[in-house]
Amino acid sequence: MIDPIILLFLSSGLFLGWALGANDAANVFGTAVGTKMVSWRNAAIICSIFVVLGAVISGAGTSQTLGKLGAITALPGAFMTALSAGFSVFVMTKSGLPVSTSQAIVGAIIGWNVFSNQATDTSTLTKILSTWIICPLLAAVIAIVLLKLSKYFGRRLKISLIRSDAYKRIALIFAGALGAYSLGANNIANVVGVFIPVQPLAELTIGSINFSSTQQLFLLGGLAIALGVCTYSKKVMMTVGSDLGQLSSTSALIAVISHSIVLFLFASQGLEALLLKYGLPTIPLVPVSSSQAVVGAIFGISILQGITAVKWHVLGKIIAGWIVTPVVAALVCFIGLFFLQNVFGLVVV
Amino acid sequence: MFENFSLFKRTSELESKIDQFFDKLAEASVIYRLAVRGYLREGVSEEFKERLDTVGELETQADSLRRDIEQKLYKNILIPDSRGDVLGLIETADDVLTLFQSSLWAFYIEKPVIHDQFTSGYKHLTNMVIKAVDELALSCQAFFRNPHAVPSHNAKVTLYEKEADKVSSDLKVQIFESKIKLVEKLHLRDFVNGIDGIADHAEDVADRLSIYAIKRLT
């Protein structure tokens, strides 16, 4: 049984997980649900299962990177870091700015580093910052390649309209499952990453299997994301679906697949090991923004389709988000830690 | 997720019904040609009546297929982003069958007297109309399987429609320059317009189809 106090401190991370599930599931299944290709019920079931699997099986890579940025050693400190990231996401969403949990948590960790006089690892920070730019660009490139391939094979295979609809439904489910797995693997670090160095949970033994604190945290975080998917994602999915609905169903499917691949690339330890084995440059394991990956993919598709009217204000807002989100989160975290330490007398460092 | 197990069964059923629908169109076009030729040869005969009935049956079967396709598309939420186009296509293509039927009914009821000097003109006009409709049926089927082939089929529809217009104009000139009574001239003109109108409608359907095909290819 988890100590209620520990659960209380974990609640900020779990809330962040819930918000992530409610918002980012739409990037995975929004198109499929919005266009009625997959029912919301089925999407929620698949998304919940795979997000938990992704978090538990492949969540370690990105969590280690966040750990290198700032290893928070006290539970109240981790609580405030996650809370300030969640608060920043909430405030910025209310202000209509596109916001990423990944960017908020990085800002919050830097806020903790500043408060605790810990030096921020600049090489890790640079690595993280570079992925924010690479992520949408890579999604755009992957989307362009996939669209070219789909056009090439579509012309040669001559699949009927009705049959291709059936294939698209199956593909949307597989892409959604991959996307949910990748979302869990990549973004679980945002949810419970800051709690890992503290190791708040005692080792749990069920039969002959031992579950470490980290594994339990991944499971709890994954379940929190799944709860967000099941309780609040429907509305967001419908909105994202109708936004993406201006794309053809093939383009929308490609946007989802590209997003899923990008998230997977930035989370896969297996791929990292494979690249290392062959002496190739590795892809940093960093939590990236799911929404920005989708926007990047759509941008790539738009370029290929010769749509010149690029929504520069959307691009501008994303770039502004790269700066504003972490700065706001860092400030909120710094002030919050100050209150927690000096008003409530809690050990935060 | 589980409904996908029956997805391919539903897909095959729908594909088969769409194919059947356009087969009915092509079949009706052959029967129509035979019926008009038969009328030109021997007026309203037993054979003509049988062909009129066959076209009527094909039209009824096509109507039933159309309703079935509509129901399947909406009930099973299939091809959500193209179903409006598919329904529009099937409904307008169904009108071609209605035009075949109403044209034959007009022959059956009004029994126009077509003098020998106009027979070849009517035959030629009917041939052009039938070629336009046959090409339209091929174009419609290509839309589902190979939208890249739609423009070339549609170009042929337009070509045959233009030819039908030319033949109908020549035939009308021939009719009005002849020595028959004005009332007969007007009667024969209406039949020329009735037959030519089928090719005009086929071209309208082909025009719609061109847009649908472009949407599919982008």
Structural class of chain A: mainly alpha
Binned, the helix content of chain B reads over 70%
Evaluate the radius of gyration of chain B. Answer: 19 Å
Distance between the termini of chain B: 29 Å
Helical percentage of chain A: over 70%
Tell me the β content of chain B: under 5%
- Count of distinct strands of chain B: 0
Structural class of chain B: mainly alpha
Low-confidence stretches of chain B: none
Q: What is the N-to-C order of secondary-structure elements of chain B (H for helix, E for strand)?
A: HHHHHH
Largest sheet of chain B: none
Spatial extent as radius of gyration of chain A: 20 Å
Distance between the termini of chain A: 26 Å
Number of domains of chain B: 1
Uncertain ranges of chain A? none
How many domains of chain A? The number is: 1
Give the CATH class of chain B: Mainly Alpha
Question: What keyword list fits this structure?
Answer:
heterodimer; A: 349 residues; mainly alpha; two-stranded antiparallel ribbon; 12 helices; 2 strands; B: 218 residues; Methane Monooxygenase Hydroxylase, Chain G, domain 1; 0% strand
What's the arrangement of secondary structure elements?
The complex is a heterodimer of chains A (349) and B (218).
Chain A: H1 4-34, H2 40-58, H3 60-69, H4 75-94, H5 101-115, H6 122-157, H7 161-192, E1 204-206, E2 209-211, H8 213-244, H9 249-265, H10 269-277, H11 290-304, H12 312-342
Antiparallel strand pairs in A: 1-2
Helix pairs in contact in A: 1-2, 1-4, 1-7, 1-8, 1-9, 2-7, 2-8, 3-6, 3-7, 4-5, 4-12, 5-12, 6-9, 6-11, 7-8, 7-9, 9-11
Chain B: H1 7-42, H2 46-75, H3 83-110, H4 116-145, H5 150-177, H6 182-217
Helix pairs in contact in B: 1-2, 1-3, 1-4, 2-3, 3-6, 4-5, 4-6, 5-6
